[in-house]
Amino acid sequence: MQDKELRHNRGADRWLTKRQVRVDRLLDSMGCWWDGWSQSRIARRHGISRQYVHRLLKSVGCTRERWNTADTERRDTGRTAVATQVAAAWRVLLHPLAHKLTERQRCAQAWLAQGLTRVDIAKRMSCSPQAVVSFLVSGRWRLERMASGQWRKRRPRERSVHKEEAAPPALGELDFEIEPIDIEALISHEGQHGRP
Fold first, then answer.
1. Which of 84, 88, 93, 82 is nearest to 59 (CA)?
2. Region of poorest pLDDT, from 30-44, 102-116, 137-151
3. What is the pLDDT of residue 153?
4. Phi and psi dihedrals of 97, rounded to 5?
5. Tell me: the pLDDT tens digits for 51-78?
6. Would residue 168 count as lying in a domain?
7. Contact of 135 with 61, CB cutoff 8 Å
8. Residues 191, 186: Cα–Cα separation, whole Å
9. What is the pLDDT of residue 80?
10. Could you tell me the residue range of the domain that residue 24 belongs to?
11. How far apart are the first and last CA of the chain?
12. 181 lies in a domain?
């Protein structure tokens, strides 16, 4: 029993180490991307393929178009984020369900894990500092809901009915009889209320 638990713990540590290596690689690649490195240069630095670098950076929205629209010439503020916020961002990125966050939520968490402030993150994400806060908060809420099992999937849409199935039944197929209308009774009833 104890041997199994020890083996299980070693496996959990190995998976955590793999996740940490991936997060380290992601953060370093994002830093190189911001410095203007090409994907092939980043791939050579980490000993991985260029396609993997592209997929890694794409998962957090670090594309060439985003880099071109960002203000890369302006200097950073020089300040660092609070240590508790940085540690919380690391916990989010190391979580097994972190891949289910949206691209912008993962991106904000990854930049925060590097110790950047909201203003510097907003410059890299081409948005406002308040939007960065909303990405960080919504990402944590989403992860907590998924981890607690309260995350509900959308109901599948009902299948649309084909035109043949939606056609009204013929009069002979109805299960009730249609009574004839007494027109004279209607006319005499309308005349009593002073209507023509």
1. 93
2. 137-151
3. 59
4. -100, 15
5. 999 999 998 988 888 888 877 777 888 8
6. no
7. no
8. 9
9. 87
10. 2-148
11. 96
12. no
What's the domain count of the chain?
A: 1
Tokens describing residue 75: 């200097």
Closest CA to 62 of 98, 100, 89, 35: 35
- Return d(Cα 61, Cα 97) in angstroms, integer: 18
Helix axes 50-58, 39-46, angle to 10 degrees: 110
Neighbour-count burial of 125, counting CB atoms closer than 10 A to its CB (0-12 exposed, 13-18 middle, 19+ buried): buried
The pTM assigned to this predicted structure is 0.65
> Token pair 């992860």 is at which residue?
143
21 occurs within a structural domain:
yes
Tell me, what amino acid is at 164? E
> Do the domain assignments include residue 120?
yes
Q: What is the dihedral of CA 83, 56, 34, 65, to 10 degrees?
A: -130
Average pLDDT, the chain: 77
Amino acid in position 154? R
Token pair listed for 190: 């309308």
Q: What is the DSSP string of the chain?
A: -HHHHHHHHHHHHHHHHHHHHHHHHHHHHHHHHHTT--HHHHHHHHT--HHHHHHHHHTTT--HHHHHHS--SSPP------HHHHHHHHHHHHSTTGGGS-HHHHHHHHHHHTT--HHHHHHHHTS-HHHHHHHHHHHHHHHHHHHHT---PPPPPPPPPPHHHHSPPPGGG-SSPPPPP-HHHHHHHHHHTT--
